[in-house]
Amino acid sequence: MMPTQLKRWSIVFLTAGLLAISLALFAEQAAQSKKPFKVALVYDIGGRGDKSFNDSAYRGLEMAQKELGIQYVVAEPTQGSDREAHIRRFAAGDAQLVFGIGFLFTDDITKIARDFPHKHFACVDYAVQPGLIIPPNLLGLKFREHEGSFLVGAIAGLLTKTNKVGFVGGAEGPLIRKFEKGYTAGVKHVNPSCQVGITYAGVSGAAFINPGKGKELALSLYNGGADIIFHASGSTGLGVFKAAEELGKFAIGVDSDQADEAKPGVIITSMLKRVDQTVYNTIALRVRGEFKGGVQEWGLKEGVIGYVYDDKNKQIIGEPVHERIEALKDKIIRGELTVPYE
Q: Which of 125, 181, 39, 67 is nearest to 298 (CA)?
């Protein structure tokens, strides 16, 4: 073969080789682009099955899987150190968005977001601290829980027969005090002479997973004259419902609609905190490429905070009370009524 022919064939083989490599890379990229978007989520203490906070987060994942076609993986921490380990493991894997559910994740997820700047993170109930710089790949999700708590407090203040109501919180701290302060303000707004008994199950995360303690605290409040108790205590609140059932009293649920967690008529209403909606919305933003770090806050105005009024409880609450609560809700949304939270 002549040198010119060899050169010509060399060029042909080189071109064919480059084409083959390009096609292989294109095929690989196409395969990658067809992979479902993957989300990782680490539950708060108590995990799935709390009938409240964590279960709401799970519903958000399910909604995103059904409507957006995402894949997801979850983990349940068993102790404080597990939170960081799970978040870091998911960040190092193939998840493109990692959630921490609960304010206890704040420090860990902030640190890990800095360590993995090309991944995205979101924290429900993110605890904003003075001077804290939030990484641009981290979204802190906050709620105006005091607004919804005010409304269910007003319901309790209008419906009480003993002029005494109660509140059972999980771990005492800034977050749960928002529920307490809003609830108390709502009671007093419609019934200034009503007494509000306040108690907490503890000071650590374990206070949210102790139904026995919840029942004990509720029995004490009920036996002291309270006829309605609002809880903000995770699965500890299931004990509050048991106490209400045993004594023929009433309770108010939290985060999710908890009407089915007690005998019919026991749960007057539930203060809704749509963690499912915020989880879904955050995933949708990331899938569309519109994710931005920082802090987002949700309340009555955004339709994320609210209360239950439906066929199960409308006869208990009654339309006159419902109309008054809706009027208070409108005032809060318009800024004519400010609800305290600390």
A: 125
132 vs 170: CA distance, rounded Å: 26
Which run of H or E residues covers position 140?
strand 138-143
Q: 38-143+276-298: what fold?
A: Rossmann fold (3.40.50)
Rounded to two decimals, what is the model's pTM? Answer: 0.85
Architecture category of domain 145-273+309-334 in CATH: 3-Layer(aba) Sandwich (3.40)
Whether residue 234 contacts residue 50, with contact meaning beta carbons closer than 8 Å, is answered with yes
Tokens 């400010």 belong to: 338
Q: Are 197 and 164 in contact (CB under 8 A)?
A: yes
Which of 97, 90, 32, 73 lies closest to 281 in space, CA to CA? 97
Convert the pLDDT of each residue in 224-283 to its tens digit. Answer: 999 999 999 999 999 999 999 999 999 999 999 999 999 999 999 999 999 999 999 999
Give residues with Cβ within 8 angstroms of 211, minimum separation 6: 235, 236, 237, 238, 239, 242
